[in-house]
Design a protein that fits this description.
Layout lengths: L6 E4 L7 E4 L4 E6 L35 H11 L1 H13 L7 H22 L7 H30 L1
Antiparallel strand pairs: 1-2, 2-3
Length: 158
């Protein structure tokens, strides 16, 4: 049988008193019982009356962001979507061998996948629209390149 460890326990000889148990036997040290703990009662304080205070409707929406703040958040949260859009816009002016458009499509595709992961994680400004715009403009850049290239080929064959 295992004996309890040393500590203050109820005195078996004097009810309501504590005695020190050494782990092997009772000592001569005693102490009066601890005073009973009374629970604290909270006092309710009535709030001052404010006319029409009960009619306030709390807003559950996040504050509206301005256009510049949205752009900054898109660049911060999804660099690939922003870069894909920028490259696809540049491709309309300078697009040798449709390389800029193809790179823009790749960056925008990565940005679109990242936007999906960000929105799944609960991020509001994920850059999905920016990535889609980059994809559409990039594809249009490839189509424009192919159209111009076919015109050059037909001019050479004539």
């Amino acid at each position: 049988m295992t004996m309890p460890g040393p500590g203050w326990y109820s005195d078996p000889e004097v009810p309501g008193q504590s005695r020190w148990w050494t782990g092997a036997g009772w000592s001569e040290h005693t102490q009066p019982p601890a005073p009973p703990v009374t629970p604290q009662v909270a006092i309710a304080v009535e709030a001052p009356y404010v006319p029409m205070a009960s009619y306030a409707i709390p807003s559950t929406e996040a504050p509206r962001l301005k256009r510049g703040e949205k752009d900054r958040l898109t660049r911060k949260n999804n660099v690939f979507a922003w870069t894909g859009l920028l490259l696809s816009l540049i491709a309309f002016f300078f697009n040798p061998f449709a390389l800029a458009s193809i790179i823009a499509i790749v960056f925008s595709s990565i940005g679109l996948a990242r936007a999906q992961r960000l929105s799944d994680a609960g991020v509001r400004i994920a850059g999905r629209g920016t990535a889609i715009a980059g994809l559409v403009i990039g594809i249009a850049g490839v189509a424009l390149f192919l159209y111009n290239f076919s015109r050059v080929l037909t001019a050479l064959h004539m």
